[in-house]
């Protein structure tokens, strides 16, 4: 699992809501796990191998960084449904216009983005992406933290 650091020292305040936007270039979304770690070391999993284990390899649609997806606790579609119903090679968000997902740790650490409520927005955040298939390569091109804070 590889991680990127995001410095949010330009902001100060206490989180009341957190959303996360990611732009990833990767085939076969069912291989991916995405986690976020706060400066206080609180961890939650945004997505863990969507479509797995109901499908041996998870959902086969692709992620393309020019059509990022957003994780938002208020989203109507569960993250386990990322790429659901799309064919291998279809691009998530482009092919189905579903771009916002509520986090689903699917047995991994964490619950949702509300775990960060009450924490300081300031400090070094990490967003980590893991690939369960050694035969594919992807790139995390963009991450944007979208906090609401007071």
Task: Give descriptors for this structure.
150 residues; mainly beta; Jelly Rolls; 4-stranded antiparallel sheet; 4-stranded mixed sheet; 0% helix
Distance between the termini: 32 Å
Classified in CATH, the superfamily is Galactose-binding domain-like
CATH architecture: Sandwich
Radius of gyration (Å): 15 Å
What would you call the shape? globular
Please bin the fraction of helical residues: under 10%
Helical/strand content category: mainly beta
Topology, number of strands: 8
The CATH C-level name is Mainly Beta
How would you describe this structure to a colleague?
The chain is mainly beta and 150 residues long. It has a single domain, classed as Jelly Rolls. It contains no helices and 8 strands. It has strands at residues 2-7, 15-25, 32-37, 43-48, 69-71, 100-101, 124-131, 139-149. The strands form 2 sheets. Strands 1-7-3-4 form a 4-stranded antiparallel beta sheet, with no helix packed on it. A 4-stranded mixed beta sheet has the order 6-5-2-8, with no helix packed on it. A hairpin with a 5-residue loop joins strand 3 (32-37) and strand 4. The radius of gyration is 15 Å and the shape is globular. It starts with a strand and ends with a strand.
Ordered list of secondary-structure elements with their pairings:
Layout lengths: L1 E6 L7 E11 L6 E6 L5 E6 L20 E3 L28 E2 L22 E8 L7 E11 L1
State the gist of this model:
With 150 residues, the protein is mainly beta. The protein has no helices and 8 strands.
